[in-house]
Amino acid sequence: MLPERNEIAQVVVCEDDTATLELLCDHLVADRYGVTAAPTAADALRLCQYGTPDLLLLDLSLPDASGLDVLRELREPDRSVGRFDPRLGVVILSGRGTERDRVRGLEQGADDYVVKPYHYSELLARIGAVLRRRRGARSSPILAGDIEINREQRSVSVGERDVSLSNKEFSLLAMLAREPTRVFTKEELLREVWGYRSLGHTRTLEAHASRLRRKLDPDGGRYVVNCWGVGYRLIGL
Predict the structure, then answer these.
(1) β-sheet with 161-163: strand ranges across
(2) pLDDT tens digits, one per residue of 188-219
(3) Is 57 in contact with 91 (CB distance < 8 Å)?
(4) Three-state secondary structure readout of 78-135
(5) Could you identify which of 76, 108, 199, 231 might form a hypothetical disulfide with 185, taking C-beta atoms 3.0 to 4.6 angstroms apart as the criterion?
(6) Beta strand 231-234 with 184-185: parallel, antiparallel or unpaired?
């Protein structure tokens, strides 16, 4: 059996050029980052809202909106309250390299601004620097009833009992815990946790949800409920 992959952080890559997006995702995966591709502004906002990313790599030229509009949505308190994690790191990747462009991006709330074309090793170092700066702010646990989720340590406990989860089980739980009273559809969960574009015939979600339910409550199977025909939510909170 192969050892389980330990990922450094979860990154959403928002880039509309398919070749650039695929290459960047491949490099980041090789360097042990969990990566989700977002070819549009709408994809990026959805993944940042319902997923649990640590950092967003954001292009400014997108087919459906400006990357600056995405950044404003993420950072504007009146619009983003309850929707986006204010501790999310954002690194802009753009071909616009004037001083005014860089200042504008940083003023809107980006943590760093990298001009294309860039050297991947430099980008990787900048990602690491942003994650280190954000690490302390993101250390506060997510609390959902008896469940405590520590994103920084990627650890989970139920009451006094530690629970060992796989990466996907952790991501599934963290997503459900973001809005513990809401039913997440199967389509949402498969898209945001696994990156599926087409559902097809898969039992991936059901298998992971079943294991997650047993791990959180080996005796009674509480906390994760299958809302038949719709999706999943947390209960017993």
Answers:
(1) 142-144, 147-150, 155-158, 161-163
(2) 888 778 766 556 667 888 999 999 999 999 88
(3) yes
(4) HHHCCCCCCCCEEEEEECCCCHHHHHHHHHCCCCEEEECCCCHHHHHHHHHHHHHHHH
(5) 231
(6) antiparallel
Within 8 A by CB and 6+ apart from 172, the residues are 189, 193, 205, 208, 209, 212
Q: What percent of the chain has pLDDT over 70?
A: 88
Which residues have a Cβ under 8 Å from the Cβ of 232 and sit 6 or more positions away? 176, 183, 184, 186, 189, 205, 209, 224, 225, 226
Beta bridge partners of 5: none
CATH number at residue 221: 1.10.10.10
What is the pTM (predicted TM-score) of this model? 0.63
Q: Is 80 a domain residue? A: yes
Read off the tokens for 227. 């809302």
The arrangement of strands across the sheet holding 231-234 comes to: 184-185, 231-234, 224-227
Token pair for residue 70? 């995405």
pLDDT digits (tens, 9 = 90+) for 62-103: 999 999 999 999 987 554 345 787 789 999 999 988 888 998
Last residue of a domain, one of 138, 170, 197: 138
State the CB neighbour count (10 A cutoff) for residue 99: 7
